[in-house]
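Supplementary notes for students who missed Thursday's class. We covered one full example, reproduced here. Read the sequence, then the structure, then the short commentary at the end.
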Amino acid sequence: MLTPHLLAPAEGSSEPDDVGIMRAGIYNLGFLGVGATTETPAILNWWARRLRYQCVNEQQQGLFVDQKFMDLVPGFASAACIMRDPRFNVAYWNLAQRSLAKDQTGWLVDGKPLGFFHFSGIDPANLTRLSKHSSAFRGDAIAAPLQALMQHYAEQVLANGFRDLRSYPYSYGHFISGNPIPAQARRLFRTQYEDLDGDPFATFEPVLQRVETSQMTQTSAEELNRHLEDIYASTSWRITRPLRMIKQLFKQQRSMN
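Structure (token representation):
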């Protein structure tokens, strides 16, 4: 069971519009219903294989974390169900197309009881905006029913230790040495070093250090080729990494060939 981000075209000036949704995925994976059908194991195993190395936000490459792959599932699964009830998976990306109200029984969407609201991008400690991902529903643009719903949610989250939990360090954000893992190192490992032996939190940092420090003479031609390929493929590095580093890598590679 899948819920579409949109139940009608979004052609206005606010983001995400329908083109933005096409980049991120037709269906929102904040919710997914899976039943024990004969088709289920094969689809979940396919999804797992894809997500092992392609659960990334590279929309220019047609990838958006776990979500974009689900665009294919209605074609794969004869039992796929697309839930078009506007009461479910209400969020910043579709709220402009739905009417949220509150009465003595609770919240209503288009006059019917709210199924569930998706608080994507909300900060319970800052209720001046619905989501960090959108410029809509901020300040005075937050109507009273929405403000009450946000407050109701925030009170529960804060009561359950949100302030303490948000200060916890990310378990996989550092090498064993304690040094933080930069985003570029993650991309390089995923695309070039998935066959590296041992625990990558221990073994991959020395690989990076050999190329980015004066230990260039200890770096094999194979490792240099991998790094050069990655530098070429990464727009962010072509912009931010010093040109002299790239020149140094090419010079070292030529001397080894």
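Commentary. The beta strands are 3-4, 27-28, 57-58, 63-64, 88-90, 100-103, 106-109, 112-113, 116-117. The longest helix spans residues 144-159. If anything here is unclear, bring it to office hours.
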